[in-house]
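Researcher: Go.
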Amino acid sequence: MRDALAAFGDSPSKINPLVPVDLVIDHSVQVDVSRSPEALERNQAIEFERNYERFAFLKWGATAFDNMLIVPPGSGIVHQVNLEYLARVVFQKDGLLYPDSVVGTDSHTTMIDGLGITGWGVGGIEAEAVMLGNPISMVLPEVIGFKLVGQLSPGATATDLVLTCTTMLRKRVVVGKFVEFYGPGCASLSLADRATIANMSPEYGATMGYFPVDEQSLKYLHQTGRSAEKIRLIEAYLKAQGLFRLYDESQPDPIYSGEEMLLDLSTVVPSLAGPKRPHDHVPLSDVKQDFLKCLSNPVGFKGFGLSETQRTKTSSLEYKGETYTLRNGSVVIASITSCTNTSNPSVMLAAALLAKKAVDRGLRVRPYIKTSLSPGSGVVIHYLEASGLLSAFEKLGFYNAGYGCMTCIGNSGDLDEEVASAINSEDLVVAAVLSGNRNFEGRVHPLTRANYLASPPLCVAYALAGSIEFDFQTEPLGQDREGKDVYLSDIFPSQEELQHYETSYVLPSLFEDCYRNIQGGNARWNQLPITGADIYEWDEKSTYIHKPPFFLSMKREVPLVKSIENAYCLLNLGDSITTDHISPAGKIARGSPAANFLLNSNVLVKDFNTYGARRGNDEIMARGTFANIRLINKLSSKPGPYTLHIPSMVESPIFDAAEKYTTAGIPLIILAGREYGSGSSRDWAAKGPQLLGVKAVIAQSFERIHRSNLVGMGILPLEFLNEESADTLGLNGQEQFTITLTSELGVGDILEIVVSNGKTFFVKSRLDTEVEVEYYRHGGILHYVLRLLSNQPRTV
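Model: Structure:
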């Protein structure tokens, strides 16, 4: 943007944050090394080696821009760092007090709603505009009241609760709505429990999952080392404003604009979610039978479509001198990961105590299972060490692998070659169990087709069991040294034990020590060179940082709105297409367009890194768009990143087909079903399609953040009317489409689409506000902001 403004003859320094910006680097570290005391150090060293250029670029930004705080790699996950340290709750500036609020470039920014702070995720495109002083625009949302009563039963955790809530709320369709939790049950939930529930707002579809500030909030602020003076100020201000919640029946229940829901916490049972979506809730007691059904069910969200012969296949694994048998359901990854759960001392201590009791009884984890522990902040390791529980984790292979998102975002690293070969030899449906928040197909690891979300103690339990096809009620985890069967119930910690450990070891001093030098505590970061130039000096040979093309042809004048004429369909997709399908963050597969580009740029296969690490290079990200190996495109005869180039009727990689259309000057659209763009707030899921030449997406419904990102990149989101879809309209995606647009384009217009087969149908424009219409007219939100900042804006 600074380059573009300079090209207009304007001062590049106008591109500068006008609001406080905190940037936490947490997405780049991978589980390259696990089950080793050297895992943390080696993974951090590899992270810096791989990402040197990216980190140097970010450090340039720290000096080139004002009002920006950068938290270096190895410090933790942004949402946990925000919760434990950065969040103010109440701002004090120029003699004025006002409530804290935040927008973040990750969908799980909502975690802070658990602390009573208004916050949600936006795409990076919209965030840049906010940094430059642009307001957030939105349709006034309905507020859903979710009443909680009772208390969690012994053995049930906050993870079980959030997976239950996620399923309940997904069924109610709360996309674009606020959810506020209230009722006497809230008083029994710790702040960390609430943060877990708020964190998964994107998974249940809501813009926010909000808990008002109350006594538990103040208790947490004290626990995390905030000053007594600051806590008193927060309490006094919020009480004076009527924003402080009491659960003593002195306040009436709020009145909500939307529907109200009810959950008795005592009905929550230990649970998992999977095997392919976070809202597919399965009680722990049903997991074994549910998985067996999934194996034979037709291919879908709850099915793998295996024949009877395929279901009984096994594969022999020779590993470190021992022979093991892999079969469908074998656990090959068990990861305690993600801010969703590692921010919660109760579930982390439960996992550690379970591990200790397992070790004491002589139980072990099979050595081929890739176990890892990746806490969201250093505080976790501090209290685990202080309590003497960290060693129990390590004895089961759960060594600290790094402070970052890691397995939760697909940075799970490679499986050992012997394990990968055994899986591939029989095409087994093996499993990953993780304490993350997403388990979409192809996200966790390309070889784990069944992926289950679970609490940290259940991650340990499944690592011990070694298989998803396991009934904890009737099957022992193993035998102790006396040959006695050991069941999960024998080693699961009690509430009294958990309370003792949390009270004794999760102390304010740990948080104060951990965050005292958060900005300068990374030696590798401190050694990075600093340049003071206002405009970044691009290196054309770099495969990490490349000057993007988004502003290259931009003119000062606002372009005319033009119809989209005779567009071909690039992809014809079904329901629940996630941003992981659209723009994967994981490994770059050999033989893919992105891999070929890197090879042609003299990058070795071992240095490919991930799509997530290559987001600074548009050439790679365009080639990685729709590069998910599990993508189902109705225009392709096989799953994966392929499509039909309709003029030639030749199937090819999606990028190659898009290039042919672009060369011929043919615009493109995408057809899709419900919940298009669910999942991460990944702005490349909009940038990538724009680079491929996509002008519009026609879907049955959109997830909130992705719809906004499409508008932000100048792609028109259109919604089928009256429960119609491509299928009900008899469209196979091989037609051409003309979408009539005029200069009168407005909010929520009903638009006509003429199809080359003679059919006509109507759609609703999902430009939801006047400012979004303006963004679209300008070709995207950043073009709008640039013209606004330019000295000579004019319209033709």
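Model: DSSP finds 30 helices and 31 strands in the chain.
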